[in-house]
Amino acid sequence: MSFTKLAAEIWRGFVTDGVAGSGVHKPIKADIRTWGTEVEAAAGSGYASFMGMPATGTVTDDKHKALLMLPADGTWITATLDAPANLRDNFQVELFNPPYSAAGVANVRRHRIISQFETFYLAPGHSARFLKTGGAVIRIDKPSKWLKSGIVMYCDQAASQTYFDGMVAGAGGAKKTMGACLAVLLADIDTKGDNPQIVVTGTFTENVRLNGGYESSGYVKIGAPAVNLLNWYNGAQPYCLMVANGATAILQNVNFNRNALANIIFLQAHQKAVVDIGDPGQGLGQSIVFAGAGATGSCLSTDGAGSTININQGIEFGAGSYGTMIFISGASSLNWTGSTLVKHSGAVTCGTYLQMIGSGANASLAGGIDFASAGTVQPGCTKFVLALCASLSLSGNVLPGNIAGNASSGAEYV
Amino acid sequence: MKYVKIIPAPDTPRTHGGRVTVIEAGLPHDGMPARWFLHEGETEYIPAWATEELMARGHQVVEAVEIIDGVQTTIDVSAVMPIDIEAELANAPANEADTFLRFHGHHEHLTAQTMIEDGHTERMRALALKIHRAVGHLRRKLPDKENDGGGR
């Protein structure tokens, strides 16, 4: 609440405040009427008291038993609700937090509500209603999802707080893990069929499972804004990214690394999953870098029927051991864009470059993929292994390796 | 593992484009031959366990090498004639042992299992040794009507 003029000004002693020589000041009735009207309006509004809100920081309200008004821009709010038994029947609190965006300013509004029982968060654009419906029960209506197409979330190793909503880039607003970004994306946001994007910067040790069923969303695009800005290590599990049943993903500008385990699969695509390596139409140069999956590990692997891996941009295999670079299982497909660059940096030891096992395993390489201009693999690499009616179309490309490719059990090679 | 380089027999079939030679070696499965593909202009080897069969089919073995951890050493061809397949498999990387097994009728999804199961390599090698005991030292005849069912 603000006043047109404060009492100290209206009833000041002298014409010029504090200067006796300026003459005695006579209060102006119009100012008094205005002030009085404003006081009456405030006093008659029904509020027991006012809770001030600083420009930044936290306000804890643990005194009010009946009502919370929680508007804020540019900060987040903590509120402690009293015990439900103390609340009147039909007590209600409504929180509404539309996305706030001034010209040239990203969404900055954040709310945090703490009841005496539970802590939870509202992402921008969400609303929730708290109801006391008799007895000692508080019911919380399920928040509706935020309808937001073209959403870009940010994940930054340097993020200073875990409760950031990820709507702002950098240490002051990004989320700290990719998993946290995906959790928000799954639970809170309806992208209306658009492709959500998670911009990731830093070094992460994280097993990420991308589940299918991201409501109304298309491909989830994960990657750094430029090459070599995202170093992604596997955590306790033998994979970095598992694209689970029915999920779709685009990966761009990711450096995959292995630690802790002897052999891993950097990227697994399960049933009906679709993974794009590199964003289509973004050039044929380096986008994804792998660093040693282990002697029986793999870089890209389809582990379920009906999955597809599309390689749209250049990839690099860094120094280290690999069991199989790419593994395609039954009823799954590999589509490799022509003229893409494949780089082998340092001593790359690989057992089998491309392995395909299973009826309906299908790989189609477009012509002119550059396997040879930027390094090659060490001796002992089998070019390809095909079995059980797998089908490989190389289109004149010669895969790296000095052991002849082989096919058995009805597998086809073109 | 040990490998050999061959000069294919003159009548060896080629792919339609003519730049890839198709070499049959290994046990057929469901009537489908096991094949290796040699690209023209490329230096490619075939695992040495197939040497006897390759020679019997009229291919000329010109070189043998042993590759360990990416280091390739030329060895005498006589060192792979015959080859101690048991020792070979015991020292082989899992995926190469896998290839061997598939070419001898064991079409399990071995490599995929290797990716996800700890200790699979050891089980696979144990399986290989059982095969070895079953087929002797691979001094087998060329595939024929009596030997077309693989090693199942």
- Report the sheet with the most strands of chain B, covering strand number, pairing sense and barrel closure: 4 strands, antiparallel
What is the count of helical runs of chain A? 3
Largest sheet of chain A: 15 strands, parallel
Q: Distance between termini of chain B?
A: 24 Å
Question: What does this entry look like structurally?
Answer:
- The complex is a heterodimer of chains A (414) and B (152).
- With 414 residues, chain A is mainly beta.
- In chain A, 7% of the residues lie in helices and 37% in strands.
- Chain A is built from three helices and 34 strands.
- Chain A is elongated.
- Residues 46-50, 53-59, 61-78 and 96-121 of chain A have low confidence and may be disordered.
- With 152 residues, chain B is an alpha+beta fold.
- Chain B has five helices and six strands; from the N terminus they run E-E-E-E-H-E-E-H-H-H-H.
- In chain B, strand 5 and strand 6 (71-75) form a beta hairpin.
- Chain A binds chain B through residues 238, 263, 265, 295-298, 301, 303, 323-324, 327, 329, 347, 349, 351-352, 355, 357-358, 377-380, 382-383, 385, 387-388, 396, 398, 401-411, 413-414, and chain B through 1, 3, 15, 17, 20, 23, 26, 29-30, 32-39, 42-47, 65, 67-72, 93-96, 98-99, 102-103, 107, 109, 111-112, 114-116, 121.
Brief summary of the model shown:
Chain A is mainly beta and 414 residues long.
List keywords for this structure.
heterodimer, A: 414 residues, Pectate Lyase C-like, 2 domains, 15-stranded parallel β-sheet, 3 helices, B: alpha+beta, two-stranded antiparallel sheet, 6 strands, globular
Outline the secondary-structure elements:
The complex is a heterodimer of chains A (about 425) and B (about 150).
Chain A: H1 7-10, E1 14-16, E2 19-24, H2 29-43, E3 60-61, E4 78-79, E5 92-96, E6 111-114, E7 119-122, E8 127-132, E9 138-140, E10 146-147, E11 152-156, H3 178-188, E12 189-190, E13 197-205, E14 208-210, E15 220-223, E16 230-233, E17 239-243, E18 248-252, E19 254-257, E20 265-269, E21 274-277, E22 286-291, E23 294-302, E24 308-311, E25 314-317, E26 320-329, E27 333-336, E28 342-344, E29 348-357, E30 362-365, E31 382-387, E32 391-393, E33 405-407, E34 412-413
Parallel strand pairs in A: 3-4, 10-12, 11-13, 13-15, 13-16, 14-17, 15-18, 16-19, 17-20, 18-21, 19-22, 20-23, 21-24, 22-25, 23-26, 24-27, 25-28, 26-29, 27-30, 29-31, 30-32, 31-33, 32-34
Antiparallel strand pairs in A: 1-2, 5-8, 6-7, 8-9
Chain B: E1 2-7, E2 20-24, E3 35-39, E4 46-47, H1 51-56, E5 60-68, E6 71-75, H2 85-91, H3 94-102, H4 110-116, H5 120-135
Antiparallel strand pairs in B: 1-4, 1-5, 2-3, 5-6
Helix pairs in contact in B: 2-5, 3-5
